[in-house]
Write a structure and sequence with these properties.
Blueprint lengths: L4 E7 L1 H7 L3 E6 L5 H11 L11 E4 L2 E3 L10 E5 L7
Parallel strand pairs: 1-5
Antiparallel strand pairs: 1-2, 3-4, 3-5
Length: 86
């Protein structure tokens, strides 16, 4: 049984600026949810947006609920709301 699983995290827009990076490899416990991944990332990067209501999460390029479980090798993305345009 695995002690940890590895996921690749991508951050977009202001989240990328807050964390100071675009991608990061992160190890989390098996059975971790999208919310768990975000909280692990926040522990490493305290400037990251604390309000999850202002962030959308995705697993393998599909928007997901915060309680969705991540698996070994998943690509996890966190995206803030985007405004602007015509």
């Amino acid at each position: 049984m695995a002690v940890a699983i590895a996921v690749r995290v991508r951050l977009f827009a202001r989240l990328r600026e807050q964390a100071g990076l675009e991608t990061e490899a992160l190890e989390v416990a098996p059975g971790s949810t999208l919310a768990d991944v975000y909280e692990s990332l926040r522990r490493k990067h305290s400037a990251l947006e604390p309000d999850r209501d202002s962030v959308r999460g995705a697993i393998n390029q599909e928007f997901s609920d915060w309680d969705a479980t991540v698996s070994q090798g998943d690509e996890v993305a966190f995206i803030p709301p985007v405004s602007g345009g015509c």
